[in-house]
Automatic annotation (TrEMBL):
<dbReference type="InterPro" id="IPR006015">
    <property type="entry name" value="Universal_stress_UspA"/>
</dbReference>
<feature type="domain" description="UspA">
    <location>
        <begin position="3"/>
        <end position="146"/>
    </location>
</feature>
<dbReference type="Pfam" id="PF00582">
    <property type="entry name" value="Usp"/>
</dbReference>
<dbReference type="InterPro" id="IPR014729">
    <property type="entry name" value="Rossmann-like_a/b/a_fold"/>
</dbReference>
<comment type="similarity">
    <text>Belongs to the universal stress protein A family.</text>
</comment>
<protein>
    <recommendedName>
        <fullName>Universal stress protein</fullName>
    </recommendedName>
</protein>
<dbReference type="InterPro" id="IPR006016">
    <property type="entry name" value="UspA"/>
</dbReference>
<keyword id="KW-0963">Cytoplasm</keyword>
Amino acid sequence: MTYKHILVPVDESPISYAAVEQALSLAQELKSTVTVMSVISVDPFVGVDFYKVAPAITDYFMQAEKNAQDRLAEIKLSFDRDGITVNTRVVRGVVPSEGIIQVADEVGADLIIMGSHGRTGFKKLMLGSVAQNVLTQSPVPVLIVKV
């Protein structure tokens, strides 16, 4: 099977960069288009007195947006350097797994390559797993990269 459009969700973790490397290699082989994306997650301050922390919330989201844009621009250069067509996207205000599946649908991705931290047991139960959620909910194949 050949994959024409690969989606690569990234965050600031080293495992994301391992997924980027895998996507870069596969995209070169298959002459695929790649979309690299980041999700700025739902409000981490839910339940906090809004009027006391409004400036902190604004600063948090502005910094998160800047960090995501900077990260995507850096990654885009790797694909550009190798002549691979690449697009970037930032999705805001959604649960990461939902944002990933939404973008996969919007761009017509036929493969998602993403990293997994490999949490198990109690950590997985408490923290959830974005990779696990995408794997079980995605209508397209998902390649999980672990280090």
